[in-house]
Specification:
This protein has 342 residues and is an all-alpha fold. Helix 3 runs antiparallel to helix 16, helix 12 packs across helix 15 and helix 15 packs antiparallel against helix 16. The longest helix has 28 residues. A two-stranded antiparallel sheet has the order 1-2. It is built from 16 helices and two strands.
């Protein structure tokens, strides 16, 4: 992956944006019903079950950083993007709570998921409350208005489409006319992951007073970033170091997930394909399948696609005038997200 340089390292950018957004995010969560607020705080790593203080790993804060940088890209203070950052982070948390229920995931960031800690019904309720609070946060901004809500609702619609496709992929066969093709996966990833990343950056720019062309360009850049981010996740899910990813080695293969490297390998017929299909349809351990995917070019195809998306992000950012400091921070963040530990 081509390195993108910046005067400020991406972790510092993320730390700065989290520090700026955190008070407003905590205030937004505090406006919820106390029980629901506790579940939301637990999901953010702020407390344990029962409300006691916790020092637990939270997320990177990518979406809130994109919103802050979107405002700065328009020449405004990062504070102008804080409501967008809060809304994007609340929607992301809402999607994770519901996603964990749909996927039956029992752990996230090395802790029980909300539905495991509190129950399925309460977790659904907490997710609904996070979504409602995100809409309320944006609706209360004097500068966003209907345009901001339209951006958010469009992203939510795409997120639901992406999640629906992802769930349906699980029931489709590995071979034949109904198999999942890489193009269908790209569309799913753009909707499920890219839509909210693009929305966060675009919302920040909108609240920062950016012209429509800049808002649109940042939305497009975020969508390309989402596809790259998801595909890199897929590569790490097969070949990543468990000490770094927090996931068991070959975890996605063990669950027989239809990830991009697998689909790309199956889309390139060769001597390894037949054996790979047999392994995927069996209950055998995934070590041989991982080797066959690599041999069939699945890992290389995935990394090539991620690189293409990085180039597309750069092209989108080059199409519009963006304040130089914010542009450098955006590129630093992009490099950090798509390279990680590949």
């Amino acid at each position: 992956m081509t390195a993108l340089t910046s005067a400020v390292a991406a972790p510092e950018v993320l730390d700065r944006c989290r520090a700026l957004v955190r008070p407003a995010l905590r205030k937004a969560v505090g406006r919820m019903h106390p029980w629901v607020a506790e579940m939301a705080a637990y999901s953010f790593g702020w407390c344990e079950v029962g409300g006691g203080p916790a020092v637990a790993p939270g997320g990177k804060g990518v979406r809130q950083a994109l919103a802050v940088l979107g405002a700065e890209a328009a020449g405004a203070s990062g504070r102008a993007g804080v409501p967008a950052a809060v809304a994007a982070e609340l929607v992301h948390a809402f999607s994770l709570l519901h996603d964990d229920i749909m996927d039956g995931d029992a752990a996230r960031r090395r802790r029980p998921t909300v539905w495991k800690a509190y129950g399925t019904g309460p977790a659904v309720l907490a997710g609904d409350a996070l979504f409602a609070q995100a809409v309320e946060t944006l609706a209360a901004t004097p500068t966003g208005g209907p345009a901001a809500l339209r951006l958010l609702s469009g992203a939510l619609g795409d997120l639901v489409r992406g999640q629906a496709d992802d769930l349906l992929f699980a029931s489709r066969p590995w071979t034949g006319p109904r198999r999942v093709r890489p193009d269908a996966y790209r569309t799913m990833a753009e909707h499920k992951t890219g839509a909210l990343l693009g929305c966060a950056a675009a919302l920040g720019a909108l609240l920062g007073g950016a012209p429509p062309a800049t808002v649109t360009a940042l939305d497009r850049a975020g969508r390309h970033l989402g596809v790259a981010f998801q595909i890199v996740d897929d590569v790490l899910g097969v070949w990543g170091d468990p000490a770094v990813t927090g996931k068991p080695v070959h975890g996605d293969l063990r669950e027989r997930k239809k990830t991009f490297p697998v689909l790309a390998a199956l889309d390139s017929p060769g001597p390894a394909t037949g054996r790979l299909v047999a392994l995927l349809e069996s209950a055998e351990e995934p070590e041989e399948a991982a080797a066959l995917i690599d041999e069939a070019g699945g890992r290389a195809a995935a990394l090539d696609e991620a690189r293409r998306r990085v180039t597309a992000v750069d092209s989108a950012l080059a199409d519009v005038p963006i304040v130089s400091g914010a542009a450098a921070d955006l590129r630093s963040l992009l490099d950090f997200l798509v390279r990680r530990d590949l």
